[in-house]
Design a protein that fits this description.
heterodimer, A: about 325 residues, mainly alpha, two-stranded antiparallel ribbon, B: about 425 residues, alpha/beta, Rossmann fold, five-stranded parallel sheet, five-stranded antiparallel sheet, about 40% helix
């Protein structure tokens, strides 16, 4: 299949950046905030696609890695007052280190054992915050990236600032990820995912490749966590619950876990579901119990439908169908 | 042809989806956001689903019951009060997202009773209601920091702080259990740290102090607490944690036949929630508990009588417990604040009314409110009682003895304040 050249890709990303710039000026503040949330989810879901879709490993603990990134960024900001981009860089590094350690263990495990280990990680890590005064306990820490520069004008809201930072970070992260996927490592991961014995026979070091995938995926999760902490202004154990790990996994399945192309679909769905559920509930004037449980119901239904009808995600399905037609 | 149809279908769905996302409600035609000639819109976020929701998910129903009662009796200055409730599942990220929706899309006039310290901190940092001039009425947390008028100028706490509670509990212990060996179980975070601060300040020393990490409480960990407490031969044990910790502690101790005099903090002392976690009400019997509102079983009390009556009609079959009473009381105080702000209701006039007249608002509590230009502290005291065999907190010998203090270094004193009679029909006056 034809893949766009690097020049073309750079142009596409620049165009996307310009589109986002104009979009942020055209919509109201709530949509701008939701846009920032979409960016957070795009990076988080991409980290799962890299890990699960490309290297074939399962993580139920991605939320905890987001937490590592969020706390690292907040601690840097509070104790060293570093510029935001350094906070993000440290968040990526800290989560990557945690991911490398987890990855070393994960490389020896597979299937339900790997799922169990990462799940334990997600359950256990948040309570660490309660063990050290430094981490601020249940109430967490503030993460204040500061006001937007005055030169942007007085109408430039805080959320627009968050949105810009998050979008820029996301564009860079996805561009980088695409490059990694197209590199030797990306191809090795795909080989491992396809058949690890065959891959090993072809000279691919399984442990090193799996650990590397875990490390890079964790780095992305760390970035996502730092962006999340920015949008809510704080980090606390309850901001990185088990449910977050499952949401990201759901998003990845909706997006089509083997391709980056659908990552926006997953992220937008996660952010839009509560809105859609609210609109549906108020349209039909349903009872409180229905209103409260509708978002979860919608997500579950979508998940089941996706797995049943487009198991590789809508984008992959679309591409496969087109290729099928072309080849006929 | 099929292809054209499919493409048309995809395009149509995309357009529909975008339209659904960008559709916003029509703003009210009035001088203030969330206030029209006929309606006042309030918004709240709290856990309605998830592990933290039991007990708390009764709050919106209780508040709506009272507001509907006010609305049926002419409303406040001719306007009906409505509340928009959003489920945050006790996750700060969702609290921020839902609060943004309430303020930016639903255009509520004020937030009421948002719950949880971490959630409220995240909302203050990200949504920043203070910068937007949005009042945050009667936050449901005892974190003393929210009374800081410089940091949270539009936030009005209503519960006594954890520091106050610990100081008052210390005084009660000195009055009733002098010379006994004391034990303490507390949550290892700001909630517990605030409590420790209060106990230390009051000069109470514990023979055994057990800290537990939030979320770690279970029958298994509670067995460890019991071992520590019984080894230190504690006669009186303070359980200053959340309901699930109280339930685990009491249940496990009963199973291990360890029976000190228990004293429960107000956060973890709601009998319905403890019972809902599977612990028989009997283990609560004779434990000491604290409250600032009258006992929910106090049929003599005019507020309890009225509120339980309204609640029974609005939500048939639901137990009238301390969460319901607390929520209806907050709604009652809110209605008075809205009334006191006058017919030209604005966010500013609402806050000005609380600061100038808040201290004289009627409420079901047995203590006065402390609102003023310089103070955003709500209630500042407690009475102590014992749990009945059915798990209801009642004052000893039917007499409420009230203690009051501050979050600072002030002394604990017995309150002589007498609650004024309820306004006619329990409507804002």
């Amino acid at each position: 299949m034809h893949k766009p050249s690097n020049k073309k890709r750079i142009a596409i990303f620049l165009l996307l950046g310009v589109a986002i710039y104009f979009l942020s000026g055209a919509v109201d503040e709530l949509r701008v905030y939701q846009g920032a949330s979409v960016a957070v989810f795009v990076v988080g879901i991409a980290s799962i696609i890299l890990l699960t879709g490309y290297s074939g490993q399962v993580s139920l603990g991605q939320g905890a890695l987001l937490g590592v990134g969020g706390y690292a960024a907040a601690l840097m900001r509070i104790h060293f007052n570093t510029p935001i981009w350094i906070c993000f860089a440290v968040a990526i590094l800290a989560a990557a280190v945690a991911g490398a350690l987890l990855g070393l263990a994960a490389a020896r495990l597979s299937g339900p054992y790997l799922a169990g280990t990462t799940l334990a990680f997600a359950v256990g890590l948040p309570s660490v915050a309660n063990q050290f005064q430094l981490l601020g306990g249940e109430q967490g820490l503030l993460f204040d990236v500061g006001f937007p520069p005055l030169s942007f004008g007085e109408d430039f809201t805080q959320y627009k600032w968050f949105f810009w930072i998050a979008s820029l970070a996301t564009l860079i992260a996805i561009f980088w990820l695409q490059n990694v996927m197209r590199s030797r490592y990306g191809r090795s991961w795909k080989a491992v995912r396809g058949n690890d014995v065959a891959a090993e026979l072809a000279g691919i070091n399984l442990t090193r490749n799996k650990t590397l995938a875990f490390t890079l995926s964790a780095g992305l999760a760390g970035l996502s966590g730092a962006l999340l902490a920015m949008t809510i202004g704080t980090v606390s154990p309850s901001a990185f619950p088990l449910a977050l790990s499952f949401s990201l996994l759901t998003g990845a399945v909706l997006a089509g876990v083997t391709t980056l192309g659908g990552v926006m679909i997953g992220a937008v769905t996660l952010v839009a579901i509560p809105d859609i559920a609210g609109a549906v509930a108020s349209r039909f004037g349903s009872s409180e119990a229905v209103t409260n449980n509708l978002p979860g119901l919608l997500v579950s239904a979508l998940l089941i439908l996706t797995v049943l009808f487009v198991p590789n995600g809508p984008v992959e399905q679309f591409r496969a169908r087109r290729e099928h037609r072309v080849n006929k | 042809m099929t292809r054209m149809n499919r493409r048309a279908l995809i395009t149509a769905s995309a357009v529909l989806a975008v339209a659904a996302l960008t559709a916003t409600t029509i703003p009210a035609q009035a001088s203030e956001v969330g206030v029209s000639n006929s309606e006042i819109k309030l918004g709240m976020t709290l856990p309605m689903t998830g592990t933290a929701s039991p007990g708390y998910n009764k709050i919106p129903g209780a508040m709506k019951a009272y507001f509907d009662y006010v609305n049926a009796n002419g409303g406040v200055n001719g306007r009906k009060i409505t509340i928009k409730v959003e489920d945050d599942r006790y996750v700060p990220t969702e609290a921020v997202a839902k609060t943004n929706k309430l303020i930016l899309q639903d255009k509520v006039m004020a937030l009421i009773s948002p719950l949880g310290t971490a959630n409220n901190k995240a909302v203050a940092a990200s949504v920043n209601p203070a910068r937007r001039g949005v009042p945050v009425l009667f936050v449901n947390t005892g974190f003393s920091g929210f009374a800081d008028t410089k940091k949270y100028p539009t936030t009005y706490p209503i519960l006594p702080s954890y520091v106050m509670e610990a100081k008052i509990m210390a005084e009660y212990i000195k009055d009733n259990f002098a010379g006994k060996t004391l034990g303490l179980v507390y949550q290892d975070d700001d909630f517990g740290t605030d409590a420790l601060k209060g106990f230390t300040q009051a000069g109470v020393t514990f023979a055994a102090k057990v800290a537990y990490a939030s979320g770690s409480q279970s029958a298994a960990t509670a067995a460890g607490w019991v071992t520590k407490l019984s080894t230190a031969k504690c006669d009186v044990v303070v359980l200053f944690g959340v309901s699930s910790a109280t339930a685990a502690g009491l249940g496990t101790a009963a199973a291990l036949k360890y029976a000190p005099q228990w004293i429960l903090g107000s956060v973890g002392g709601d009998a319905t929630t403890i019972k809902a976690s599977g612990v028989p009400a009997g283990v609560l019997y004779n434990a000491v508990g604290a409250s600032f509102a009258p006992a929910t079983t106090d049929a003599e009390d005019e507020y309890v009588k009225l509120f339980s009556d309204i609640y029974a009609k609005a939500v048939p079959g639901s137990a009238f417990d301390s969460y319901v009473l607390g929520a209806m009381n907050s709604a009652f105080v809110a209605a008075q604040a809205l009334k006191a702000a006058g017919p030209d209701l604005t966010r500013k006039s609402l806050m000005a009314a609380i600061e100038s007249k808040g201290a004289s608002f009627a409420s079901a509590a047995l203590l006065p409110l402390n609102y003023s230009k310089t103070s955003h502290v709500g209630y500042s005291g407690y009475w102590f009682g014992k749990y009945s065999p059915t798990g209801d907190l009642k004052p000893v010998d039917g007499k409420y003895v009230l203690y009051t203090t501050d979050s600072g270094s002030g002394a604990v004193v017995k309150s002589t304040w007498k609650r004024p009679a309820m306004p006619a029909k329990g409507l804002p006056n």
